[in-house]
Amino acid sequence: MAIAPITGMLRKRFWVDLTCSLGLGTSLGYAFWYGSHLKALERQESFYVKLERERAAAANA
Q1: pLDDT tens, 12-61?
Q2: At 51, phi and psi to the nearest 5?
Q3: How far apart are the first and last CA of the chain?
Q4: Left if phi > 0, otherwise alpha if psi is -120 to 50, otherwise beta: which for 8?
């Protein structure tokens, strides 16, 4: 008893799979960038600005 070959499966679903993967990947990339990365970067920058101000105040005092 032979199993019938699966033909055309990749071709039929290729564009749907490609579109979904690119769309979801882009969406998750933007969610990470704007939801997590930029907030962490802002926290880091504010820390270094505060540190620099403290060093400048200590140097002037």
Answers
A1: 788 889 999 999 999 999 999 999 999 999 999 999 999 999 999 999 87
A2: -65, -40
A3: 91
A4: left
